Amino acid sequence: MDKIELGLKENWKQFTLLIIVNAFVGGMVGLERSILPQIAEGEFHLAAKTAILSFIVVFGITKAITNYFTGTLANKVGRKNLLVIGWLIGIPVPLILMFAPSWNWIIAANVFLGINQGLTWSSTVVMKIDLVGEKNRGLAMGLNEFAGYIAVALVGFSTGWIAANYGIRPYPFYIGIGLVLVGLLLSFFFVKDTRGHSNKEGTSSITPRLKNSFKDTSWNHPNLGSVTQAGLVNNLNDGMAWGLLPILLATKGFTLQEIGVITAIYPGVWGIGQLFTGKMADHYSKKMMLFWGMLLQGIALLFLVYAHTFYHYGILAAILGLGTAMVYPTFLATIAENTHPEDRPKSIGIFRLWRDLGYAIGAVLTGVLADFFSINTAILFISALTGLSAFVILLRMTDKKVRHSGTILQPSI
Length: 413
Hints:
Helices cover about 80% and strands about 0% of the residues. The chain is built from 17 helices and 2 strands. Strands 1-2 form a two-stranded antiparallel ribbon. The longest helix has 30 residues, at about 105-130. It starts with 11 loop residues before the first helix and ends with a strand.
């Protein structure tokens, strides 16, 4: 039996493989990112924004519930087994998107996609944290989320380009067939389970066990609760950007290709930025990174209402992506830092439950506001909510430890 060692350098082969797998996971979301709202309006003649955003509601709820059970089952079923099961469930997604005869079939595809994302993405997150141990968790999560969201951006751009040049269906979704098959083969034949690494870290961890994982992660624990509410609001505004931004841009007269570029800039900056922000989370104040990241998102959303040109929207999409890049790996690194290895998979699952419910809440909320008032009203409301979340972090959260030049400092409350 191979000797189990913790660390990024010691496990670089498996870590790299999991990064590649997570790129395929992210690509599955990118299939829908830029063109599904146009399919809703153009092919199925849906006019109400609430109806159009129903696919995000279903995706968010399904993924959120799956995240919870992935965290709970990770220690029982095995990380690798959940990853493989997730890919098997993802097989029907591109096929349904290609040939769906009605919007209800698109909704069904998003049930499968939500389960696929919950099982695969959560599994890769837990496995990477298992491999690296205490050191470099932020970097590990930055690399993980970089791979996933760069893939979202690239596939989102590609589907927009293909749709503009060859038609909105079925050609853009051929990419999905390759993503799911390669992801499944890599996971089944090459990925190794990492439970042994978690067990080894657990023997030396001094982090106290949580009394009630659900209550503590959801709100009771100041740091975990602060991260969880911010995660929910982050995905709430991401759900709005996913569903309403393409519609807003279409009403401004932008072409499908231009919409594809703008909607790709946001996850592109988000993905690339995490190469740097993940490492920063290992050395600087997680609290302040979360605060400024959420605040930047709120500011970018505010100015979406006043933008007019392609360049305005491109710049704001980049700022929104930068803000999200600051918080996304920091969320997961903070969860890992504040939980015992035995509690960690469950806490990550609970955090991701609430975070991805943000997709559903955001889609319903913004859809209703857009239908009854206007798209601009919906955006302004979400902007204010995102700014409020930033100040919850500022007032409630405390850094467990802050590293500067190798020195660990205990923060004052």
